[in-house]
């Protein structure tokens, strides 16, 4: 804990899968305190205590009023949807609240908006907050450089039945890392699914395959398929705890920053 006291964290999407995991993680952390809980208009949980579902009383009520939910916060952790995140961003900019953004599925112009806001407030944004995935990103860059010729690259991801965006933000980030390492532009070479008479595989492409089902937390594999061998680099999340702990790490990292756009490499010192 700093001399200024515990880090005051607000959670957006407080009733979501990640929102609840984050509230639990904040409650369990000695150096953080829950300072606000946001959910959207119409949520039946509005007005109830943010930790009621844990059988605890935090004194923090879930609200859809952004100014009220952010009034006491230093950092907002946001795992919602792109339109929600952008609405929260505008209020954070107005109030000078830092942001950890875990939401995925942004369009390029929405990412540009976040980049512009980072000139005024400190923002950490990453499609995957787990330490393991971010280490895997480094391994992928190394493998892709070495397997630049003669290996077809395919990215396969699997998630729970509720996930609304595809491919996952992590799969897309893996695609970016691999494409950069082999000197290709992902916008030019990505193939998102195949059907019908597709013709033989174009070796310059990077393919994506998406699986949705049950309660799969998040699996990602990058396959380098050559002649006579194949290499698979896989990461599997077995609990959302890993994303919540990574998010708290990011919030602590932002505490010392006035502005700028950061990613998980910055937080983990992997840059
Ligand atoms: N970076 C990372 O490490 C990870 C990223 N994610 C990403 O986080 C996001 C959320 O995932 P998950 O928790 O599983 O999703 P959930 O649907 O369980 O939770 C989303 C929460 O945000 C709320 N919400 C939805 N739309 C809006 C909006 N427009 N404004 C404000 N609040 C809104 C939802 O409310 P309601 O239920 O009423 O719709 C809900 O409370 C996804 O984009 C996912 O890909 C997930 C895990 C890890
Ligand atoms: O929606 C999820 O659950 C997840 N989303 C993130 C993504 O899109 O990459 C991260 C993780 O895979 C879980």
Task: Describe the protein's architecture and organization.
Helices cover 34% and strands 24% of the residues. It is elongated, with a radius of gyration of 20 Å. The mean pLDDT is 97. It contains nine helices and twelve strands. With 271 residues, the protein is α/β, with parallel strands linked by helices. The two termini are 26 Å apart. It has helices at 17-28, 66-70, 82-95, 108-117, 131-146, 169-181, 186-189, 241-254, 264-268, and strands at 7-12, 32-38, 62-63, 75-78, 98-101, 122-125, 152-159, 190-192, 206-212, 218-225, 230-237, 260-262. α1 packs across α8 (241-254) and α5 packs parallel to α6. The chain folds into two domains: 7-125 and 240-268, NAD(P)-binding Rossmann-like Domain (Rossmann fold); 131-237, 2-Layer Sandwich (Dihydrodipicolinate Reductase, domain 2). The strands form two sheets. It has a seven-stranded parallel sheet with strand order 3-2-1-4-5-6-12, sandwiched between helices. Strands 8-9-7-10-11 form a five-stranded mixed sheet. It binds NADPH dihydro-nicotinamide-adenine-dinucleotide phosphate and the ligand O=C(O)C1=N[C@H](C(=O)O)C[C@H](O)C1. Residues 104, 127-128, 159, 163, 168-170, 218 line the site of ligand LZUJQKHR.
* Share of residues in helices: 25-40%
The CATH homologous superfamily of the largest domain: NAD(P)-binding Rossmann-like Domain
Low-pLDDT segments: none
CA-based shape: elongated
- Following the backbone from N to C, one meets helices and strands in this order, namely EHEEHEHEHEHEHHEEEEHEH
- Total helical elements: 9
Reported CATH architecture of the largest domain: 3-Layer(aba) Sandwich
Count of β-strands: 12
